[in-house]
Amino acid sequence: MSQARPRPVRSALRGLRVALRILVDAAMRFSLDDGWAIASHIALSILTSMFPFLIFVTALGAFFGSTNLADEAVRILFQTWPEEVAAPLAGEIHTVLTQTRSGLLTLGVTLAIYFSSSGVEALRVGLNRAYGVREQRSWWLLRLESIAYVFVGAFALLALALFVVFAPMIWTAALRIAPGFEPLERLIAFSRLGIATLVILLALVIVHKFLPGGHRSLREVAVGVLLTFALWVAAGVAFGSYLAEFARNYVTTYAGLASVMIALVFLYMVASIFIFGGELNAAILREAHRGGPPER
Asked: Which H/E stretch holds residue 82?
């Protein structure tokens, strides 16, 4: 019995060494693949794509006869952002979205769709670098795919906003039929955050599986997706706490551009974590194929 005891210890130490080797490999490849530069490209692309995307969402909502869905879509989009980052940026976005637009099929909205797809292309570049793959598809096919992602994202955001708008009315009607559900009202209040969490996880899975070149199973991307989400939550809390104490430094330095710079720094941090999640998945695949030919 005494000799069998060190075996789990050796197994745990071996697993710890493997995990440490994977993390070091991912960190080294992050640097070699220009992860910091790609993260800055993603952050700027997302920031410049956000306004055109929400303009398209507003036009799409107006096309279906509801202009209030855009405001709800903005609230959902910023639900998981730190309040110190989301509040000033949401104000600027609300100013843009309240401008009168002529309709859905206009040149401005068409350009908004195209510019929105640039954010998707930036994510593709980062993941292709992380997974070490080279695109074999034509550039126009990739751009059409990115535009399709923009349409899917816009429709999904509007559908989610519609659900959130009608949820209180549905809940009120349900309480009239079954008053015993009233103690669950507090649980329903947290449902928005839970829905936003599920949407983020689903979006990360879709992006890691289908956006870059090559093929990966759900198991091969799960670790990077979960780590990305966990680090996003931790980074959001930390950055929000930092801004609560030192936000005036940004206002003093950047004046009217403070909200934009805060959002850009936050997106840069988020993009760096996103790329590292891809590098971690790639490092796990390399560790699994150690001693054999890598599958590319």
From this structure: none
Residue for token pair 């107006």: 62
CB 121 within 8 Å of CB 38: no
Count of C-beta atoms within a 10 Å radius of residue 140:
8
Cα–Cα dist 151/169, whole Å: 28
Q: Are 150 and 113 in contact (CB under 8 A)?
A: yes
What was the pLDDT predicted at 7? Answer: 73
Structure-token match 């070149």, residue found: 213
Contact at 8 Å (CB) between 142 and 121? yes
Instruction: Please state, in angstroms and rounded to a whole number, the distance separating the CA atoms of residues 120 and 118.
Output: 5
Quick one: which of 139, 98, 92, 97 has its CA closest to 117? 139
Q: Report helix, strand or coil for 216.
A: coil
Q: How confident is the model at residue 256 (pLDDT cuts 50, 70, 90)?
A: low
User: Hey, is 105 helix, strand or coil?
Assistant: coil
Helix extents (H) in the chain: 6-32, 35-63, 69-77, 83-97, 107-131, 139-177, 185-189, 191-210, 218-254, 258-288
Token output for 104: 């859905």
Residue 96 tokens, joined: 């843009």
pLDDT for residue 218 = 92
**Alpha-carbon distances, residue 214 vs 85, 132, 144, 208 (angstroms):** 35, 10, 18, 10
* Model pLDDT for residues 47-102, shown as the tens digit of each residue: 888 888 877 887 777 776 666 666 777 777 777 788 778 877 777 777 766 665 55
Q: Are 83 and 236 in contact (CB under 8 A)?
A: no
Supply the pTM of this predicted model.
0.83
